[in-house]
Amino acid sequence: MKQSMLYPCTNAHRSFASLDGLWKMQFDPASDGITQNWQDGLPDPFSMPVPASFADVFTEKEKRDYCGDFWYETKFYLEADDGRDVILRFGSITHRATVYINGVCAGFHEGGFTPFVLNITELVRFGNRNRITVRVNNELNETSIPCGTTKVRKDGSRLAQPYFDFFNYSGIQRSVHLLKVPKEAILDYDTAITLNGSDAVISYQVKTSGEHSVSAEIFDRKGNRVCANTGKSGELLIRDARLWNVRDAYLYTLVFRILDDNGGEIDKYPARLGVRTIEVKGNRILLNSREVYLKGYGKHEDFEVIGRQFSWTVAKRDFELMKWTNANCFRTSHYPYAEEWYQMADEEGFLIIDEVPAVGMMRSLMNFAAAGAGGKDTRFFTADTVPQLQKNHKEQLEEMILRDKNHPSVIAFSIFNEPETTYPEARDYFAPLFALARELDVQKRPLTGALLVNSTPGKDTCAELCDFISLNRYYGWYILGGPDLNDAEGAFRAEVDAWRPICENKPLIFTEFGADTHAGEHKLPSVMWAQEYQNECYEMNFRVMDSYDFVKGELVWNFADFQTTEGIMRVNGNKKGIFTRNRQPKDAAFLLKKRWEQK
Ligand code: GCB
């Protein structure tokens, strides 16, 4: 295990301070900060909130679109040494970061959507002020997850050119914590759940950094202890277990303690436990052995001004809107979201398909365009960059699973979004990633990946790796939109017919479908971009989906309008939202609310 990803908590042994606030920042377009010793202090900084996506706070285009190296700096006071380790934890820095403590390099991390921790005990000055400097880089290339390229303009400035359809928000985008943890500490744990009649058996494994024994206890919501065991691994039996269910999310508390030889406590970590099982049987998805139909959204972490920064208030509004439309599920398209999203989903009883940032694995700007236009094969998985890409992909997958594996809300992992899967090298690339996920996830959740329009039976090489098939399909938009909607229906039916033999034994869900819609636009009869058309397009899609009993879920694209790179295909962002970017309903929200009430 690379690092402990446990979310910070406080108790008699552990404490943390938030380092969020106003930091200093400076762009480093010549990438010579290191040679100028910026790690010892930034020479000409401006102030910048942390966490934040820096882009949308600026009024100047070159700052918003800045691509390259940039630095952050802050200082913190550390009280006297109390014998515990001092750990610096970044919720995420996009996309790569080198961290310096008092001018000395403490570590490097690549991957913009997962936390990383650094043990800085040897680098800090106790009873003193300490400086953190971070050199960040937000360039995209074909080994980065997500993929893209970086263009150098005539004046030498760089511009991110994503192979994906969302703005390349970057910076220290999630919270920073300074933790104190005991030298002998709980590092990680796994749980796997089996239901036995009305009882539940929880097998657990705990990793610690020492040899002392571990105790495990489960408490119910009222604080009553319902079972206990000792040992770093074992089983816990909950009699008459209250299950965790969709919109009925009962959570127990699971407490691990490291005990010394006299029974004294060395460390303690409390976690929430939702008792639920998830499996695919034949072409059904079963939650607690009962079939569940997935209804909901592909989302983004995206909001006005704050970009990708997590906001409890925006997230709460999103959950309220999802509940209002009777949804039960969302996909974290196209990257792992801030940890707080999963905590809220655990509480609210929402199902999550958790996606690794493997998007843009096709040489095409904004990734939808080439496919929609019947685009050409780029043989992406035959390039020299592939071994390094796969290494990064594995690391991102491992970090996501390590971080999210104990959330009851997480019911599946998605290993990719719309790669070029139409030739055998793609399968060679993805098979080891699926194998890795199966090995790492003790709960053995179903695995999937969202397939692009040209990944059809006979052409696609990766669907067979998936436990359920996920299709992104834009019949009525990129394919046969507007006046051709009737033909779109026929073409869509023909494609779903072709999936039937595969789906005799595998569920099929739609992970994307929809139509760009301008919230202010109305037209009778309808035209593309008007609200009436968004409804008609959805009605057509639902007619088709309802005719196939192996279709087991529908996640519309997208929950809300979101920011993308500038371009002729986008009107200040992607407008396929069911809600506007500031979270007000378009007409389609009422259609979904009604449909999902009955579904
Ligand atoms: C897709 C992509 C998604 C895009 C969407 C669209 O297939 O997975 O990232 O935003 O299409 O709206 O074009």
* CATH level-two architecture of the largest domain: Alpha-Beta Barrel
Based on DSSP secondary structure assignment, what is the total number of beta strands? 34
Residues in helices, as a percent range = 10-25%
Query: Which stretches are poorly predicted, pLDDT < 50 over at least 5 residues?
Result: none
CATH homology group of the largest domain: Glycosidases
Task: Please explain how this structure is put together.
The protein has 599 residues and is α+β, with helices and mostly antiparallel strands. The protein folds into 3 domains: 15-181, Galactose-binding domain-like (Jelly Rolls); 186-276, Immunoglobulin-like; 284-598, TIM Barrel. Helix content is 19%, strand content 32%. It has 9 helices and 34 strands. The chain has an 8-stranded parallel barrel. A 6-stranded antiparallel β-sheet has the order 3-2-4-10-7-8, with no helix packed on it. A 4-stranded antiparallel β-sheet has the order 1-14-5-9, with no helix packed on it. The longest helix has 19 residues, at 386-404. The chain is globular and about 70 Å long. Bound molecules: (2S,3S,4S,5R)-3,4,5-trihydroxy-6-oxo-oxane-2-carboxylic acid. Residues 164-165, 334, 367-368, 417-418, 472, 512, 557, 574, 576 line the site of (2S,3S,4S,5R)-3,4,5-trihydroxy-6-oxo-oxane-2-carboxylic acid.
Keywords:
3 domains; Jelly Rolls; alpha+beta; binds (2S,3S,4S,5R)-3,4,5-trihydroxy-6-oxo-oxane-2-carboxylic acid; Immunoglobulin-like; 8-stranded parallel β-barrel; TIM Barrel; 599 residues; 34 strands; 9 helices; 6-stranded antiparallel β-sheet
